[in-house]
Write a structure and sequence with these properties.
The protein has 98 residues and is mainly alpha-helical. It contains four helices and no strands. It has a single domain, classed as Monooxygenase (Up-down Bundle), CATH 1.20.1280. The N and C termini lie far apart (46 Å).
Length: 98
């Protein structure tokens, strides 16, 4: 890797850390609808999908932590929390339909 490329990659890290935080926050409107305004539509959500999203986010978070890469582990840890909140909400309102 060239020195110029390394400097560019290093400069890009804080932006990607921010994106790792902002990205999972995109789930907040869905969580709001699930818990507060449209909980009757929980049957239309896939528990299987959100469990898989949570599992994948957890694996990526561990990978990022092992490789000491904050944009990966921070964003995916937050994503895992958001995904698990969806899993809990779907389970709560549907009794566990997949």
């Amino acid at each position: 890797m060239t020195t110029r490329f390394k400097r560019l990659a290093t400069a890009f890290e804080p932006f990607m850390l921010l994106m790792g935080i902002v990205g999972p926050l995109a789930t907040l409107p869905q969580l709001f609808k699930l818990f507060f305004s449209h909980s009757e539509h929980a049957l239309g959500l896939s528990l299987t999908t959100w469990v898989l999203y949570a599992l994948l986010a957890a694996l990526w978070a561990v990978y990022g932590f092992v490789h000491k890469n904050p944009p990966i582990w921070v964003g995916n840890s937050l994503g895992f929390l958001m995904d698990m909140a969806m899993v809990i909400g779907i389970f709560w309102h549907t009794g566990g339909t997949f």
